[in-house]
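Researcher: Next sequence.
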Amino acid sequence: MLSADDFQVHLPRTGALINIGGYPIPAYYQDAITEFRAAQKAAMMNRSHVGKLRVFGKDRESLLHRLTTNEMRNLPVGGGVVNMFTNAKGRVVDIVEMFVEAESIFILTSPGRAQILKEWIEKYTFVEDVKSEDVTTQYGVISFLGEESEGFLQEKMGWKMDDLPGQSARTFSAAGSTVVVHRSGTFSPAQFNLIVSALELPNLWTQLMKHATPVGHEVYDMLRIQRGLPRLHKEITEEYNPHEVGLYPLINFEKGCYIGQEVIARLDTYQKVQRQLLGINLEIYAVDDPRLALTPAPIYLGEQMIGQLTSACFSPALGHGIGLAVVRKQFATHTEPVQIRWPERTTAGQLRGLPFV
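Model: Next structure:
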């Protein structure tokens, strides 16, 4: 079983820890700038804190299809998709990555959401032959970030994956361990997720540490914001609907009925989407500026509040602060400077499109 200690015992250089999903996650190992540079090529991150579900039973595909927004039927074994669970109000329960196994569907959830999603599936299981199992503590996840990740894994591990489609998974071996390699990247900064038994996680981590730079959550979040990807409890909240926070690509408007479909379809059909996810350049020039952690924060155009800054970080690639903002749609194309009003200081910003890089 995976415990909090698995994030520390084998990581002697770990820097400050932050709590995500009930696990202490390294914010960094060396420093964010060094790790960001490594993540432009091939770097690794212990992401065992993400939730993990297995869904069994002969009706698993049909039930999950009725609970999610994207098409997921008739996927081959190993095939996968990014999907979204929504409630009756059309709000997001969670964004997940799922792939098909021989006897089950494996689901990677947001941190701390596996049990919640398990109960959500069970709530809508009536006569169907479906069983969900929270396997979060049984498996570890090592994610690889950077455009050279595929080449790195082939050269160092001997895993050939150039024919592995996006979101699909394939099983490999490493030092006697069975590793499921899942090609991510569609809606995540991670290029690959290496899913391994929790008992075998330390050995695989140690083996990979000989060749790859470990990175912490700060860099992962930098890459997420730079790509304009919303995150649960940041952009993805009860306040905003999927259209408003850039989740349109995860909605298949051709599929049949699912929970929340009527609300989501009506917003699209009648153009009732009131807000839009944008990027924002910030006049902040230090990676450790405390204002970057103070979100949400109101955004003003003159004396009119037009939206919220929902995520922020320093971008080593751009040399200044950047953020994600949910802004009223009528102001989305305004080019005038805006102001972010933190409790003790107002900072200038400039709205812009996504992604940043």
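Model: The CA atoms of residues 21 and 112 lie 4 Å apart. The longest strand covers residues 304-315.
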